[in-house]
């Protein structure tokens, strides 16, 4: 857009500058939203490609880049080939799936609850999924991955409903104050439930160590499981993400309030039900694959909404790219920092996400005051 001059036509047509006593301003060209948002998505896709390559080439063991390329193109039965083609490749794919699932679930959750602090980890959804898997395993033994997925889905659904019901009861009783969708109150309830679920999980694991030996890394949040059937998990994540895209317009209306959404023709009840289904499927899949990884569903949607504006379709699209960037970057950093060991990805996302949560709480408190 060309520079425009605003002012009295009789005055000299100099560009207007900011400052005291000035009345002219240079209007700087800005990138059109029609181009800006695709450009942001393209940049996110490039960043994701960089993270995928880093995940393949950087590990807790130092393997030269030329060997990585050789074994990717010509796999064999050697240990180095196994490390690259099984451990690193599958780990990278799992990181992408988990990042997409948690980020998209967070975007849907923030829209349907009208809560900028809503996140699967903070509202207890991931903890509920983990609790379902652990209790089911303690009662039935180690189940195959589909059975674990069903247990995680039941736990995630129960946790979501429980936290929302307690929030509404607290609002009705006036004991916690505010509206039923008070962001800080729901987070406090979710954190309390997560602490309770974590205590139960830890107690069960400690009393049955032999049964849960394979869940040690998973309990903290890790991408190292090698028994995951990637194709079914990929289909579930694609299904959940596709449903989130289809619901994007209705979620934009719900973000304005239920009455406004109904006036705009949105069927609020069915949309909320489908949104709950999306959240349950995505969170259950992510937790089954990698354990309870927190704050990805907070950081990615917040960044996406800041860059894309209040357009849920664009937010979901950027979350589908930005979520894997967060997970893979944290995973690669964990491999580098703890060499020759590894630091679980859940620890690093919590380390980065905790300050983000604190800043958001302070920002909401400043708005309220």
How do the strands and helices of this protein lay out in sequence?
Layout: H1 33-57, H2 65-73, H3 79-113, H4 125-140, H5 145-173, H6 183-207, H7 216-220, H8 230-246, H9 248-254, H10 258-263, H11 268-290, H12 296-308, H13 312-337, H14 345-368
Give an overview of the whole structure.
The two termini are 40 Å apart. This protein has 14 helices and no strands. The longest helix is centred in the first third of the chain and has 35 residues, at 79-113. The chain has 369 residues and is mostly helical.
What's this model, at a glance?
This protein has 369 residues and is an all-alpha fold. The chain is 70% helix and 0% strand.
Averaged pLDDT: 83
Give the biggest sheet: none
Shape estimate: globular
Q: How much helix, percentage-wise, in residues?
A: over 70%
* Unreliable stretches: 1-28, 173-181
Key terms for this structure?
369 residues, mainly alpha, 70% helix
């Amino acid at each position: 857009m060309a520079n425009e001059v605003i002012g009295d036509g009789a005055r000299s047509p100099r560009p207007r500058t900011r400052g005291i006593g000035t009345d002219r301003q240079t209007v700087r060209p800005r990138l059109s939203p029609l181009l800006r948002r695709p450009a942001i998505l393209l940049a996110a896709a490039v960043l994701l490609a960089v993270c995928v390559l880093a995940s393949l080439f950087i590990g807790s063991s130092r393997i030269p880049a030329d060997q990585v390329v050789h074994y990717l193109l010509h796999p064999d039965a050697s240990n180095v080939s196994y490390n690259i083609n099984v451990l690193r490749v599958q780990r990278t794919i799992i990181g992408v799936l988990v990042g997409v699932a948690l980020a998209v679930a967070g975007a849907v959750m923030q829209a349907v609850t009208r809560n900028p602090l809503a996140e699967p980890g903070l509202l207890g959804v991931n903890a509920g999924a983990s609790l379902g898997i652990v209790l089911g395993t303690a009662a039935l033994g180690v189940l195959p991955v589909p059975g674990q997925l069903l247990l995680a889905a039941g736990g995630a659904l129960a946790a979501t409903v429980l936290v929302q019901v307690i929030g509404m009861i607290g609002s009705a009783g006036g004991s916690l104050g505010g509206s039923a969708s008070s962001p800080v109150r729901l987070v406090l309830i979710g954190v309390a439930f997560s602490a309770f679920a974590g205590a139960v999980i830890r107690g069960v694991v400690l009393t049955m160590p032999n049964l849960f030996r394979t869940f040690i890394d998973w309990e903290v949040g890790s991408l190292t499981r090698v028994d995951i059937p990637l194709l079914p998990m990929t289909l579930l994540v694609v299904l959940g993400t596709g449903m989130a895209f289809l619901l994007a317009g209705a979620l934009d209306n719900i973000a304005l309030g239920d009455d406004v959404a109904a006036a705009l023709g949105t069927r609020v009840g069915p949309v909320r039900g489908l949104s709950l289904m999306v959240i349950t499927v995505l969170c259950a899949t992510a937790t089954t694959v990698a354990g309870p990884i927190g704050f990805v569903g907070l950081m990615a949607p917040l960044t996406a909404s800041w860059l894309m504006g209040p357009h849920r379709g664009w937010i979901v699209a950027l979350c589908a790219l930005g979520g894997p960037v967060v997970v893979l970057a944290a995973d690669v950093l964990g491999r580098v920092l703890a060499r020759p060991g590894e630091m679980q990805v859940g620890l690093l996302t919590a380390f980065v996400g905790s300050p983000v949560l604190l800043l958001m709480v302070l920002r909401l408190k400043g708005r309220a005051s």
